[in-house]
Specification:
CATH class of the largest domain: Alpha Beta
CATH architecture of the largest domain: Alpha-Beta Complex
CATH topology of the largest domain: Aminoglycoside 3'-phosphotransferase, Chain: A, domain 2
Number of domains: 2
Radius of gyration: 20 Å
Largest sheet: 5 strands, antiparallel
Helix content: 40-55%
Strand order of the largest sheet: 1-2-3-5-4
Number of strands: 11
Number of helices: 9
């Protein structure tokens, strides 16, 4: 399908779904794999549209489900300053996700906004009901990769069987030379119960919490979006936040005031960063492969 035809059908689908034509619709950055548009309906509602003509089955339904789950967690604590875009529609032809748009802050966030982000993430991490299990009720997507979220009784089992092992298998298919690290990788998996830190109840996780998935509105309120949600150890989100930069020490200091990180989190950081690094090695190769090997050999060699 040509881009022009896709956009024409998108206009038609929005009009059919909302009962009014979108106006002032313009293209904006949509990440690596999607197109994105912002605009306004004639009634004045500002919308953000994320679309891809070749999106996989239920791609945007799954993302919408994750956004709603995050909003549910924020609503569980009325004092949480964190925001998540509201899902307005999920379109099927063409596949698209329509969200309520917000006006992004045109300059870097203030210290107060950064502190609000830290507090908000901490409250989100504490928002699951007691006795929750590790996992999620559906598989979902981390970039173009679909992840199995079938619940597990323990965090070590979930992290090994639902994340590290299947992703490592996928990586070795693309990078056969990594088979030489298999023995070390298997030893790392065997040691996971001792490497993952003290046992904690599952946290409500964003799942892909790097700086590109955080923004601030014109009032300085922090927004998170593009999730890959599941219930897991909170150090998954915190490790991702420290992998690609973009968050100041104020964010983590504010987080610790609400939900102090467990002892030894600095030493565990590479184990939790191994997850996104394997994903990046699968998608982009290059230096990410060396980063994966380095961590595997450090903890499994």
């Amino acid at each position: 399908m040509s881009r022009h035809l896709h956009e024409t059908r998108l206009y038609e689908a929005i009009e059919n779904s909302f009962g009014e034509k979108p106006c002032r619709l313009k293209s904006v950055g949509g990440g690596c794999i999607n197109q994105a548009f912002v605009g306004e309906l004639k009634g004045g509602l500002r919308i953000f549209i994320k679309t891809r003509f070749d999106a996989g089955p239920q791609t945007f339904e799954i993302e919408a489900d994750g956004l709603r789950w995050l909003r549910e967690g924020i609503a569980a604590t009325p004092s949480n300053p964190l925001c998540v875009p509201k899902v307005l529609k999920v379109l099927s032809d063409p596949p698209a996700l329509v969200l309520e748009a917000f006006e992004a802050l045109p300059h870097p966030p203030t210290p107060l906004s950064e502190e609000a982000l830290g507090r908000g993430i901490a409250l989100l991490h504490r928002s699951l009901p007691p006795h929750s299990t590790f996992g999620y009720h559906i598989a979902n997507d981390l970039g173009p990769l679909r992840l199995n979220n079938e619940p597990s009784p323990s965090w070590a089992e979930f992290y090994a069987d639902r994340r590290l092992l299947p992703l490592f298998e996928l990586l070795t298919k693309k990078r056969p030379l990594l088979h030489t690290t298999r023995s070390a990788f298997e030893r790392l998996l065997d040691r996971l119960p001792d490497l993952l830190g003290p046992e904690e109840p599952p946290s409500r996780l964003h799942g892909d919490l790097w700086s590109g998935n955080v923004a601030y509105d014109s009032r300085g309120r922090p927004y998170i979006f593009d999730p890959a949600v599941f219930a897991g150890n909170r150090e998954v989100d915190l490790a991702m936040m420290q992998l690609f930069g973009g968050f100041s020490p104020r964010v983590f200091a504010a987080y610790d005031e609400v939900f102090p990180r467990a002892y030894g989190h600095k030493e565990r950081l590479p184990i939790y960063q191994l997850l996104p690094l394997i994903v990046h090695a699968i998608l982009f190769g290059g230096g990410y492969v060396q980063d994966v090997v380095r961590i595997i050999m450090r903890f499994g060699g």
